[in-house]
Amino acid sequence: MCGRFNASFDAGVRKLYTSLNINKIVDRPFDRRFVKSADTISIVRNVGHQRQVENATWWLLLDQTEKGFKPSKFTSFNTRYDKLNVPQSAGYQAYRSSRCIIAVKGFGETEFVNKKPVHYYDMVAEEGGLILGGLCREWQHQVTGEVKLSCSVITLPPHEKLKHIHSKAMPLILPQDLSLVDSWLDPNFNQVEQFESLLQPHIPQTLIAQQIDKPMTHQAISESQVINYD
């Protein structure tokens, strides 16, 4: 996916939050139509036995600065599915003990040819919201003691139904199954082989795809398309 969300906190997404049995909101979920990589976004994770919403930098790898943190020079807003089981990769340990989800209205894709954008699309859930599978990490500043949270979205190979929109990858959209979400968010559940089926291209709910002029202005320039669930 191409580094942008529709993070509108509308009635459908609020209902999705309720269904996730979130017990405590540390930071109110962001309510923004356009969020890009390296921005602060809302994630859901388990801390101890409590499920909560927290703010995180959408860039898994951070570098310490004199007074805080900044995104690493290594691109890490996404973590590829085929890197999750590579021991030296950035997401290897997080996949086993620090998974999170990002509940959003939708996401955006940009298709590039010869490094130039040829079209932009936004996709939203036909009903409610989407749960994207992600990873998160905590960073503690060695001087100030500040604790910073970062995250990434797991990406999969392209889905046949979406290749005309984005030919390289798609985000991991988790089925809205509470028992699955419970296992995904459990930091003590490290039997990741049970998530293997999730790492195949899959659309668990119907999407509405809309071609737009540009991500910042997101004005529709064609008829919307229905992408039916698998």
Spell out the blueprint of helices and strands:
Blueprint: E1 4-7, H1 11-19, E2 24-25, E3 32-36, E4 40-47, E5 50-57, E6 62-64, E7 69-71, E8 78-80, H2 92-97, E9 99-104, E10 106-113, E11 116-125, E12 130-140, E13 147-156, E14 170-171, H3 178-185, E15 207-212, E16 225-227
Parallel strand pairs: 2-5, 8-13
Antiparallel strand pairs: 1-3, 1-10, 4-5, 6-7, 9-12, 10-11, 11-15, 12-13, 13-14, 15-16
Beta-strand percentage?
Answer: 35-45%
Rg (CA only):
17 Å
The level of helicity is 10-25%
Mean pLDDT over the residues: 94
The CATH H-level superfamily is SOS response associated peptidase-like
Order of helices and strands: EHEEEEEEEHEEEEEEHEE
CATH topology: hypothetical protein yedk fold
Oligomer: single chain
| Strand order within the widest beta sheet | 3-1-10-11-15-16
Helix/strand class: mainly beta
Major beta-sheet overview = 6 strands, antiparallel
Helices, by number, come to 3
Number of domains: 1
N-to-C CA distance: 19 Å
Number of strands: 16
Q: What would you say the CATH architecture is?
A: Alpha-Beta Complex
At the first level of CATH, what is the class? Answer: Alpha Beta
The gross shape turns out to be: globular
- Flag low-confidence runs: none
GO molecular function: lyase activity; peptidase activity; single-stranded DNA binding
Family: Belongs to the SOS response-associated peptidase family.
InterPro entries: SRAP, SRAP-like
GO biological process, one term: protein-DNA covalent cross-linking repair
